[in-house]
Amino acid sequence: MSFNNKVIVITGASSGIGLAAALLFANKGAFVFNLDIIEPSYFHKKVLWLKCNVSDISDVQSSFAIIRTHTKRIDYLFANAGIYSEAPLIEMSSTTIDEIINVNIRGVINVLRITLPIMKAQKNGSVVLMGSDLSFVGRKNSSIYGATKGAIGQLTKSLSIECASVGIRVNCVCPGAIMTPLTKKAIKLEACEKKESASVIYKEIEKQIPLKRFGTSEEVAHVVAFLCSEKASYITGNLVSIDGGVVASQVDNCQYNSHVLKQIVHILGQNTLFFAHNQKNEASDESNVDKKNIVQLRSKL
User: Fold this and answer.
1) Checking DSSP bridges between strand 7-11 and strand 31-36, what pairing results, if any?
2) What is the SS3 assignment for 60?
3) Active-site residue, selected from the candidate residues 42, 145, 202, 256
4) Which of 126, 173, 208, 273 has a Cα at 20 to 30 A from 221?
């Protein structure tokens, strides 16, 4: 894939997945604007860092004003910036809750509200939002973070419908266990709390991943690049899992109440028979018995 002369805005591209995406796009010919509160430790002639707190709309407006002095087009947006904090809901401070929501949801919305009109005017564009495996499943001590990523998943679906008629595609990448500086920091903290070595924690996590390893930032970046490219021109409104099979394995392992399911299936079957009898005007004793059975089964539920 080539992105020669294309322009992409990436939020949070100073480290981790954002950094990998910035370098991938830049090395393939794109000009990259990195909106991040942290100054990057790398230099690339095609990447311009703009200090920006995405949760602050005035910061975002100022950054885009600078971008507009360089280019009138924005071909792609990768809304990657986000923060994570792990704690039970009742133990999390209001300040921390506000920070997570403001960056992970409000920050994305702030950037979208400025980017989308530009893409609409040019009748073309691709947006990739940053979700998570928690866009699909729950995890202990991650209720607020998970809520924000669930919101991003829904935003992706609804926004893709809103933007389709003006040539803008909207998708979402949902990484699982990816080896980033944030992941390493979280594992180090968990190791300290459990008084175990970090290597033990790594192995415990890897055991829960069907592919038995952590993913890399570069693997996520390649999916982002694909979704932005013309090769994905018929893909919009999708949440793409990049998690080594974790979400699929959790769905497969869900336990359902088979007794209740059997009753529901039986009711559906009886209803089908009942309506079929009505349509054929076969008001027989058998259909009356079926109807009574339906009522009895409903009362049991």
Assistant:
1) parallel
2) helix
3) 145
4) 208
Fold of the domain built from segment(s) 7-178+214-252: Rossmann fold (3.40.50)
| Contact call for residues 200 and 191 (beta carbons, < 8 A) | yes
Give 228-282 pLDDT, tens digit per residue.
Answer: 999 999 999 999 999 999 998 875 554 444 444 444 445 555 554 444 445 555 4
pLDDT in tens, 147-158: 999 999 999 999
Q: Which residues have a Cβ under 8 Å from the Cβ of 5 and sit 6 or more positions away?
A: 29, 30, 31
Within 13 Å of residue 267, how many CA atoms lie on the same side as its CB?
14
For the question of residue 145 being annotated catalytic, the response is yes
Strands 76-79 and 178-179: unpaired
How far is residue 250's CA from residue 5's CA, in Å, rounded to a whole number? Answer: 42
- Smallest CA-to-CA distance from 85 within 106, 101, 100 is with 100
* Closest to 178 in 3D by CA, of 131, 230, 122: 131
In whole angstroms, what is the distance from residue 253 CA to residue 248 CA? 9
Alpha-carbon distance of 215 to 195, in angstroms, equals 25
**pTM metric for this prediction:** 0.82
